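Message: I would value a second opinion on how I read folds in token form. Give me a protein, with the fold worked out from its sequence. Write it directly below this note and I will take it from there.
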Amino acid sequence: MLLACYVIGLAFIALWPTPVDSDVSPQLAHVLKWLNQHGIPAFFDYSFVERSANVLLFVPAGLLLAMLMARHRWWLALAICVVGSCLIELGQLLLLPARYATLDDVVMNSLGALIGVGIAALVTRRS
């Protein structure tokens, strides 16, 4: 049930016709500028936030799928997540002209899934 809710939420975010951050981009840029002026390193910019969001978006996918599968099938959970990310980007490329399909998103989503799979491995190893 939790996985189904997550997938529905992910679909809404990934396949929304316009970039989901378009309404908050000016405010985010203002906050990031303020943070940079007050000691936060310059690498903490919009690109960093976007990449981090792409990583965090797929941590639950890797975690939940890995928890559903047998311990030795962790690679299958990761593969499903990578394929899912590729399909999302392909959908954005072909069906959503206002969205940007990038290889960087696939890499960051895959990293998030790998982190989720790693967390699942740690949790199942301890129990």
